[in-house]
Amino acid sequence: MWSVASTSLACLVVLAAGLYDIAWRRIPNILPVCLILVGIVNHLFDRHLGLSVVLATSVFALCFIAWMFGILGGGDVKLLAAATFSIPANRVADLILVTALAGGVLSLCYIVMSRLLPRVSPVRPASRLRRILRTEQRRIVRRLSLPYGVAIACGSILVMTVH
């Protein structure tokens, strides 16, 4: 029972992180904290808390180095480390691989869209959703940063739900 609930909660949290990253290029700190709390409860049941702490800390350290070189954003670093902690220890390599593949697909999509999408008109849309979409279109056309939280969310959800 708890396994289904914790997986559902973790999937919702990473989905929210991906959506926040698209809209604002930020990931609120509360979302990685929620993943860590889910991970603590999960690892109390599977008795791999120590190993999961080591793995999540290692992922955080490697991603922190990527952040120092401007490869990842700070929210991405926290989200990937927290996602690492929230899954079983034997699935961490799957998470890293699937997230990297999702990041590659995301990059290809943005490259293709940057060539296909028209320039953004200066008229400000009335709805918040349209403003977010227009802002994202501007980011894509100008080839600005990727919302890598989307790749982390995709990788996390796939690893959490596919056994």
Automatic annotation (TrEMBL):
Topology class, membrane: Multi-pass membrane protein
Matches recorded under Pfam families: Peptidase_A24 (PF01478)
Main location: membrane
Molecular function terms from GO: aspartic-type endopeptidase activity
Transmembrane segments: 26-45, 52-72, 92-113, 140-162
Keywords assigned: Cell membrane, Membrane, Transmembrane, Transmembrane helix
Matching InterPro entries: Preflagellin_Peptidase, Prepilin_IV_endopep_pep
Gene Ontology CC: plasma membrane
Subcellular localization, as worded in the UniProt entry: Cell membrane
Domain (Prepilin type IV endopeptidase peptidase): residue spans on this chain: 10-107
Superkingdom assignment: Bacteria
Protein name (record): Prepilin peptidase
Organism, scientific name: Lichenicola cladoniae
Phylogenetic placement of the source organism: Bacteria, Pseudomonadati, Pseudomonadota, Alphaproteobacteria, Acetobacterales
